[in-house]
Write the structure tokens for this entry.
Amino acid sequence: MTTEEDVLTSLDHYEHAVIRVAGEFRAHDAPVEPRHVRLDDLDSIVVDYGTAGQCRTYSLGGLPAVASVEEAIVELTDLLQEKVLEAGDTAWPGCLPGHRHPPSARLVSGAAVWTCPEHGTTLARLG
Ligand SMILES: [Zn+2]
């Protein structure tokens, strides 16, 4: 069960995470970028994101309760990576050489990392 306190603690983690995820997306030339996180009318956590260079924002939710900033980075990245893939960059931000699938955001030993979904290899630190 998710209590109100869990939601507020999670929101705090997401607020820190969104800055690092935005940096990660910019570093890899993603066509979308997260702007900020907030509670919607139903007290569910949503992320507002936009297309690089445009003011218009879109929202995605509801993000699950998380216990750490690293976990929040994985959840945000996973959600927004879908939007990058839909925009046509189908392997973003790139897996191992020769792999045509996108890498997956995972929590490994408490840290947010990119991993190869086929080999399970850790590729790089995320955020
Ligand atoms: Zn791979």
User: Anything to note?
Assistant: The radius of gyration is 14 Å.
